[in-house]
Amino acid sequence: MKLQRALRPRPSLRFVHIWRRNGLVWTKLAIPSMLGNLADPMLYMLGLGYGLGAMMPDVVGMPYIAFLAAGTVCSSTMMSASFESMYSSFSRMHVQRTWDAIMNAPVTLDDLVLGEAIWSASKAFLSGAAVLLVASALGLVESTLALWVLPVVFLTGLVFAGLGLIMTSLSPSYDFFMYYFTLAVTPMMLASGVFFPLDRLPQWLQAAAQALPLTHAVALVRPLMRGVTPDAPIAHLSVLVAYAVLACYAALVLARRRLLK
Amino acid sequence: MPHLRVSGLRKSYDGTDVVAGLDLEITPGSCFGLLGPNGAGKTTTLRLCLGLTEPDGGEITMLGLPVPERAREARSRIGVVPQLDNLDPDFSVRENLLVFGRYFGIPRRDLEARIPGLLEFAGLTAREHARIQTLSGGMKRRLTLARALVNDPQLIFLDEPSTGLDPQARHLIWERLRKLTNEGRTIVLTTHFMDEAERLCDRVAIIDHGRKIAEGAPRDLIAQHIEPQVVEVFGDGAQSWAESFGRGAAERCELTGETVFCYTHDADAIVHALDARPDVRYLHRPANLEDVFLKLTGRELRD
After folding, report:
1. Total domain count for chain A?
2. Is B102 on the interface with A (CB under 8 A)?
3. CA B259 to CA B291: how far, in whole Å?
4. What is the largest CA-CA distance in chain A?
């Protein structure tokens, strides 16, 4: 009975309060925040895309900058969701004790974790959408099919928000997040087809890459930006949805274990 | 119907009983003090009452609702002032009240109408737009108290409301708490300042090792457990004085640190003897709740 209660997630629409709280903070810092979120991926995309791209033939039938732009939409979404759900959520949970205050109100930890996840996904959505906007201004987007990138970006954001919140629920301090970045995020960025096509990798690594959520995001976003329907869209979406649901659920269970002892 | 009823409450961590069969009943409109040394189980009891952790046994009913099953609903009608300030540092004074009110689902218009009164209660009307970091400790605590009132609660929990405050700020907090009980609200506070409990509480429970060891009105507890007069003796000669004279003259003598506490019904002889001793100083006072507390929970240090 008790175990059942402990494992059944019961989030509610009250997560909106959390989202709005974070949103109000964000509106005060929106410009530096957007700039910080955008400058880095944009510099890499433009520098590598045009610099390296100038020395390269087309990659899988498109200029390297266009190839890289699609990858950057996904990787900047991942980065933004990860930073928000780890460093920022951890500050609110552990350092500022904002979660403690909120849990004294009629909002549950389930609402809180869901609110944080959707908030991080929303911020990540802005990052991904901004890269998409810049790419389209540079003429790197071929058709309105690219609008389908937006829901994929949100879903990708939710995946990495969930994964980040798992880390947050386990973390003793900020330093802990470096493990995740070094051992998960960076390898994922290199093995998911962000910078170069997956088929350049050894067979075993290609197979392993299929287990990574970022691979499936890239596999959806790149064709969409080129104006082509992706292969097996349902399969890719299913992987992302499964990751999002399981990661958010695990984050919730771990957060309960940490905070509701 | 009591605003809070706790019966047979138990909670243990790693095999250690932190709350070990606690019974409490708190009547509407009263100020109830939960006293105990560090680690007595006060904060755990509070967390259990708020439904933030599941009890291992026992029952809690808050404002008629079973906790933890319907804790969320019960929380919508209570206010909480936590031990550590957790005001939202990303917001101004006003925004703290506004955002906190939204967690209760209070409509914006109602909140806007309520905030001026809360700011006035906290004495922060002029600091409405100040950032939290610029407030003094007393201001922060007052704002935390005002924040706990944003939903017009019937029952307010305060976990060590005046810890870390200077005397002026403490008196101001006490005055505000009085105001709240005068309005008919119920207050449950934990503290280890006995003067605070004696001053504010209609009733106190002293708990130790997760069990209630005494309960009653402060005045009754003092009368029941302690001789009416106390002479505190300190200075280099205090201990030798106690051995040679004090123990014989007082009903009871206790040593805490370097101070000898003499408990008696008539202190005249002791005071007279002490006046003749230049090597000791003394303080003659009526017995208070701290004497009861020390007698019941022991004098050794708790960490």
Report:
1. 1
2. yes
3. 13
4. 64
Q: Does A104 touch chain B (CB under 8 A)?
A: yes
**Does residue A7 form part of some domain?**
no
What is the token pair recorded at A18?
Answer: 């959390």
**Percentage of chain B with pLDDT > 90?**
77
Residue A158 within a domain: yes
Answer whether A104 sits within 8 Å of B88, measured CB to CB: no
A141-180 pLDDT tens trace: 989 999 999 999 999 999 999 999 999 999 999 999 999 9
Question: In terms of CA atoms, which chain B residue is nearest residue A92?
Answer: B88
Distance from CA of A48 to the nearest CA of B (A): 37
- On whether any CB of chain A is under 8 Å from the CB of B52, the answer is yes
Q: How far apart are the C-alpha atoms of B261 and B255, rounded to whole Å?
A: 6
Domain with CATH 3.40.50.300 in chain B: 4-217
Interchain contact B80–A (C-beta under 8 A) = yes
CATH number of B4-217: 3.40.50.300
pLDDT at A1: 42
Smallest Cα distance from A232 to chain B, Å: 42
A5 within some domain: no
Arch. (CATH architecture) of B227-286: 2-Layer Sandwich (3.30)
Range of the domain at A254: 13-259
pLDDT > 70? residue B39: yes
Task: Give the best residue of A7, A104, A256 to mutate against chain B (max B CB count within 10 A).
Answer: A104
Q: What is the pLDDT of residues A131-143, one digit of tens each?
A: 999 999 999 998 9
Of B31, B3, B33, B44, which is closest to residue B197 (Cα–Cα)? Answer: B33
Instruction: Indicate whether A4 pLDDT > 60.
Output: no
How far apart, in whole angstroms, are the C-alpha atoms of residue B269 and residue A252? 68
